[in-house]
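Final report, Chapter 2: Outcomes

The project's central promise was a pipeline that accepts a single protein chain and returns its three-dimensional structure in a standardized token representation, suitable for archiving and comparison. That pipeline is now operational. To close this chapter, we reproduce one record exactly as it appears in the project archive, with the input sequence first and the structure output second.
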Amino acid sequence: MKKKILLGLIAAWSLSMQASEDIERLKGCWTDTTNAQWTYGFFDHFAIYQNDFWNYDQISLRRKKGRVTLRKGRQTATLHIRFLPGKDSLCLIGPDPGNAYAHAVRRCDVPPVPQETSPATAPPAAYAADSAVVQGYVPSQKATEQISISVASPFHESEQTIHAHTDSTGRFSATVPVTGMTETYITCQAGGLVVPAILAPKDTLTLYAAPGGQVFLMGKSAAFNRERLEGFRQINAVWSADRTQPDSLSPDEWKSHCLQRMRLQRQALEAYARSTPKPSRRTLDYFDQHITMQCADQMLQRRFALDKKQFERLPPAFLHTVDSLLELARPPYTGHEALHRALRAYCHYHSTPFPASMTLPAVTLADYLQRNRLHTFSSRELSDLKLLEEGTSMAISLLYLKTDSNTGKARMAPYQEAIKRSEQLLEGEEFKRLMDTYQDQIAPWAIRRGIEKELAPLHRLHLPDELKAFYATTVLTRELDRRRMPYPPEILSFAREQLHNPELYALVAARQRHYQRLQGLALNHPQSLKSTDSLEDIKEPAKLWEEILKPHKGKIIYADFWGTWCSPCKWQMEAVPAVKEALADEADIVFLYLAVHSPEESWLNFLKETDLTGPQSIHYNLPPEMGEMLTRHLSVSAYPTYLLIGRDGRIIDRHPPTPRAGERLVDYLRRMIHPDTPTE
């Protein structure tokens, strides 16, 4: 009996050794010889086939042929393999034993650029909100690695980041939200992996990060993404080699510089097209639009170098060139981050001519009454009201820029008469009656005016109606994200008027429902919210700061000054839950959040959405005067601002790591909590 068991074990061991040897013979990536598409991947513990992971069920290979049986759940697949004589790097693999449907495949250590087998042109424009799957194999010496997938959607205020971890074999899988063609960046910091990819709804993209840094891609969009990856390597060499800053050149010099760089990138694209076997029309069209819109966006970076104190503007000829570039945009409009950036930069420049731009409630009401034919104002009254709003923006801008009195008087002179006449109009009994009657319409109409103001610059361009509607949708959805509150019904009606494409309107409606649901949710751990009522009588900023810190003395405090209007603040705060989870066992750390200039409803909704409350978190929404007093006292001039407070209540670091630093912030805070712990 023992002899039979021993013989059985020896036989099993022999089969195991044979299977191991067979795997070694097949191990690696195999690409189709007809189109260079990655078709099979055979690795130690699993295979990649038909754009998915399969486990080995049985392996039997002889010198020239054999078969591999794979299993995925209840599904099995048998691959018949025949090595070509004298060529282990070339074989036939297929599910048919007679090899009638076998692929001639070649072993590849370096992925060749595949030939696009899908339609030559880009898919039609579509804006369906759905999801895609990104999965892959990232070999590593560590048990698990964190994979981050950043989603750069034009319909969101900030990019979303999806996290996944590799399992013990190095595999990962993540579901990614996409809207139409969506740009994503797949990264693994430990492995140095950075893969830009464009995903479409219901796509599955499978990647293998080879140890040498090469990336194999499999899936419906693999050929396009592989071509795109290779193309970027060539045209970005032109971009990366250039370190010229816009403020070092005049507007005309900067324009010439950007156009020259665009020409060089086009030359690099032509060289790529010549060196690549049959590059797809879709890829070439993609890069043509990318290079053009990148040039427009870079030209508009010159706006940051303008002299604000002189209210300097870009020359007309400069802007004419930008106009001509933007008018070259073609569908599909999703999947082109450079286009979205260029449009936002263009509209922001034209819609905000002053450093501080004001919208006055009385002028908003007058605009509402005139456009809805509820009251008629003369052309002079309307002109005066427009100058009143501009003059107010100019006056606040002059204070912000700390302009001297003589310059201020000269700048305000063109507005003085119109301001006087407008003030007389607004102080009249008739206008006061109108204000009382239509008071409730001011807030929603102000939202509409703000959206119209941002969209107005596009009317000067010869753009397709679809592109204007696409950009209007991005403005409407981003404004919802910025407010973190649902729109009033009037704005939804306005959105429906603007968006005749039902898919575009559906994006706004879906985001509206999200914030409506958020309003009805209860806040987790409401004890985190602290009232400022007991602090209102404190007029000394040092005393105010002391009172806020007093309940937490003896602990390390990580303070965050932020606002619901501040996109970078919210982008950073979305990374906070992971940091707090990593420090959940530390009782001596307090996260103190001080919101300024933030509407109460927006503040509460953002805390609900990001789950930022908890036993370690303290939240204040500071009233305007209190916020100004505290930020002046602590020299907070930018948002977000982070401070680290020691156990004695003193600031010990004005520049601690930010939440997006992740593990670096966690390690930093642990060292602050346990300063005597020896470092490795």
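Archive annotation: The longest strand covers residues 52-61.
This record, like all others produced under the grant, will remain available to the consortium after the project formally closes.
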